[in-house]
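Justification of resources, computational component.

The compute hours requested in this renewal are based largely on the per-chain cost of generating structure records like the one below. Each record pairs the submitted sequence with a full structure-token output. That output is archived, and it is also reused by downstream analysis tasks.
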Amino acid sequence: MDEKAKQRHTALTCRRALSPQQRIQASAVICRRLTGLPKIQQAVTVLSYAATWDEVDLSPLHNWLRQQGKRIAFPATEGQGIMHAVEAGTDT
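The structure output for this chain reads:
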């Protein structure tokens, strides 16, 4: 296993070891930090992601972004490494 794969495995193991309450608390801290970043505050559009059960829940950030009138986009893959951004709330 190369170094990058080891780091991913370690991070995934640690993330999955969190209790639901720990995950909620960590997500809230991360979202607060993100809303305080000047680049996020100045942005018109923010590329984000929809979390799976063991990832940071960014829904508080997404709510804040909407309240600020900012657009949110998510990555969408077409296959074979082709990826583009899709604005939240639009049909594609």
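The chain has a mean pLDDT of 92. Residues 20-35 form the longest helix (16 residues).
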